Amino acid sequence: MHPQLSDKRIVCREFIQALDACHVNNWARLTGGCNQEKDSLNRCLRKERVERSTRNRAQAREKRLKTEQVWKELHEDD
């Protein structure tokens, strides 16, 4: 399954439960009857991943600017 599903903080719980409920019916699972639930789960997980990447990128940018400022102040003393 998806690696995000093993997290302790599950963000797309309702989509996971819907997919699990659909997978109880083996015939629907094997014939594509659960594709809509799976697509919904994929969209939810993608949205979470994009939001997390955006947050991480902003944090990295702030950290890089802070580091550059410290280096600049350090080299001003030379």
Secondary structure: elements and pairs:
Elements: H1 13-23, H2 26-30, H3 35-76
Helix pairs in contact: 1-3
Function: Required for mitochondrial cytochrome c oxidase (COX) assembly and respiration.
Subcellular location: Mitochondrion inner membrane
Protein name: COX assembly mitochondrial protein
Output the helix-strand order. Answer: HHH
- Enumerate how many helices there are, as a single number: 3
Low-confidence stretches: none
Radius of gyration: 21 Å
Global morphology? rod-shaped
- Average pLDDT score: 88
Span of the ends, CA to CA: 55 Å
What structural category arises from helix and sheet content? mainly alpha
Q: What portion of the residues fall into strands of 2 or more residues?
A: under 5%
Helical content (DSSP H or I, runs of 4+) = over 70%
Q: Biggest β-sheet, characterized?
A: none
Number of strands: 0
How does this model look, in words?
By secondary structure, the protein is mostly helical. It has helices at 13-23, 26-30, 35-76. Helix 1 runs antiparallel to helix 3.
